[in-house]
C-alpha cells in the first residue's frame, strides 16, 4: 500500500489538471501554431508558465486503483502487476486467464 499522502497529492493534481485543462489546451495550441508570429507564441508560453505546476497533465502519476502503487501499472486494467496477478488468479477479472504451456 502506498503512502496515503502520495495518493492524496496525486488526486489533488488530477483536480488541478481538470480545472486548467481547457486553458492549457488553448494556450498550447497557440504556442505550437507556427503560422502565428513569435510574439504571440511567446506570450502564450508565458501565460502557460503562470498556470500552477500541478496543473500540467504530465505531473499526474498513474497509480493502482486498489493499492496506490505507482510502478508496474497496467493502463488497460488500472491495476499494478501484483494486484493484476492476484485478482487474475482468483478469477475476478473477466477474460483474463493464467497462461500455461
From TrEMBL:
It holds the Pfam family Ribosomal_S14. It comes from the Bacteria. Keywords: Ribonucleoprotein, Ribosomal protein, RNA-binding, rRNA-binding. Gene3D superfamilies: 1.10.287.1480. SUPFAM superfamilies: Glucocorticoid receptor-like (DNA-binding domain). InterPro entries: Ribosomal_uS14, Ribosomal_uS14_bac/plastid. GO terms for biological process: translation. Binds 16S rRNA, required for the assembly of 30S particles and may also be responsible for determining the conformation of the 16S rRNA at the A site. PANTHER family: 30S RIBOSOMAL PROTEIN S14, SMALL RIBOSOMAL SUBUNIT PROTEIN US14M. Belongs to the universal ribosomal protein uS14 family. NCBIfam families: PRK08881.1. Part of the 30S ribosomal subunit. Contacts proteins S3 and S10. This is Small ribosomal subunit protein uS14. It comes from Pelagerythrobacter aerophilus. The gene is rpsN.
